[in-house]
Amino acid sequence: MIIKILIVALLISQPVFASPVSDGALKMIKVGNEIGSASVVTNGQFLLLKAMFHLNDFDAAYEASMQMRSGNRLLNQAPQENQANRILIKLLKQNYDPALYQSALYLLDGEGGFVRDEVRALKLLEKSVELHSNPQSAFIAAALRNESPIPSVKNKRYIDELITFAVLNQVKGASEYQKYYIDNNWRSLGVKNWRQWSDAQ
Questions:
Q1: What's the rounded Cα separation, in Å, for the pair 93 and 83?
Q2: 14 — phi, psi (to 5°)?
Q3: Which residues face 77 on adjacent strands?
Q4: How far is CA 134 from CA 7, 74, 111, 159, 163, in A?
Q5: pLDDT, tens only, 119-138
Q6: Positions of the chain with pLDDT under 50
Q7: How many CB atoms lie within 10 A of CB 192?
Q8: Burial label, 174 (beta-carbon count in 10 A; 0-12, 13-18, 19+)
Q9: Over the stretch 10-23, which tens digit does the pLDDT of each residue have?
Q10: Residues paired with residue 72 on neighbouring β-strands, in sequence order
C-alpha cells in the first residue's frame, strides 16, 4: 500500500513549522525588504547560511535555496538557479519533505532547471505521502495517476487511497476532484502547469 500508516494517525497529524532560526531569518529578510534596509536583509541571509552550514538546519537550507532561486532586487542579487538546485538535491537525498514536494512540481512542469519527468515526480510525491503524510502531495499524486493514460499508473486502488487521504485532511479542491473526475469519470483536466493548478485550488 502507498499509505502505510493508520487513518486515525493521519487525522491527527500536525502541521510542520519552520525551525526558529530559519523563521527568524526570514522575518529579518522580509522586514529588510519592506523598509529598504540592505544590511537587515544581508544579516537575515547570513543567519540562514550559518544555520545551514553550522547547525545542519534543513529548514534553513531549504529557505536559503528559495532565496537563491528568487534573487534579491534590493541587494542586486540575480537568481542563482543552479546553486539553489544543488541545495535542493542535497535535501532530496535526506528525504526532506518540502524538497520532495517542490522538486516534484518542478519535474512535472519542466521548470526551475529540471527536465520534465512525470514518472519521477510521481515517485517523489508518493514518497512525501509515505514518509511525511503530506496530504497536498497525496492530492496531486492522485490526480496524476487518474489523468494518466497508462493502465499500470491509473491504478484505482492507489488513486482511491491517495484522494481519500487528501479529502480527509481537507485539502482544497480534493473533494470536488474526487466527485467529478474520479467518481463520475469526467474528461481529463488537461493540466498545463501543475504548480499553477495546485495554487488555484
A1: 16
A2: -100, 150
A3: 72
A4: 13, 35, 22, 15, 12
A5: 999 999 999 999 999 999 99
A6: 1-17
A7: 8
A8: buried
A9: 333 333 345 788 88
A10: 77
Q: CA-to-CA distance for 165 and 160, rounded, in angstroms?
A: 8
How far apart, in Å, are the Cα atoms of 198 and each of 21, 98, 153, 182?
Answer: 29, 15, 20, 17
> Rounded to two decimals, what is the model's pTM?
0.85
Which one, of 184, 106, 132, lies nearest residue 2 by Cα? 132
By three-state DSSP, how is residue 34 classified?
helix
- What is the residue whose three cell numbers read 528559495? 66
Share in percent of the chain as helix, strand, coil (round to 5): 65, 0, 30
Residues in Cβ contact with 177 at an 8 Å cutoff, skipping those fewer than 6 apart: 139, 142, 143, 163
Look up residue 177 and give its amino acid: Y
* 177 CA to centre of own chain: 20
Angle at 49 between CA 75 and CA 17, to 5 degrees: 105
Alpha carbon distance 36, 91 (integer Å): 31
Is the torsion defined by CA of 137, 138, 143, 146 positive or negative? Answer: positive
Measured between alpha carbons, how far is 104 from 194 in angstroms, rounded to an integer?
10
**How far is CA 154 from its chain centroid?**
22
Tell me the residue type at 142.
A
Residues in the chain: 201
Strands (E), the chain: none
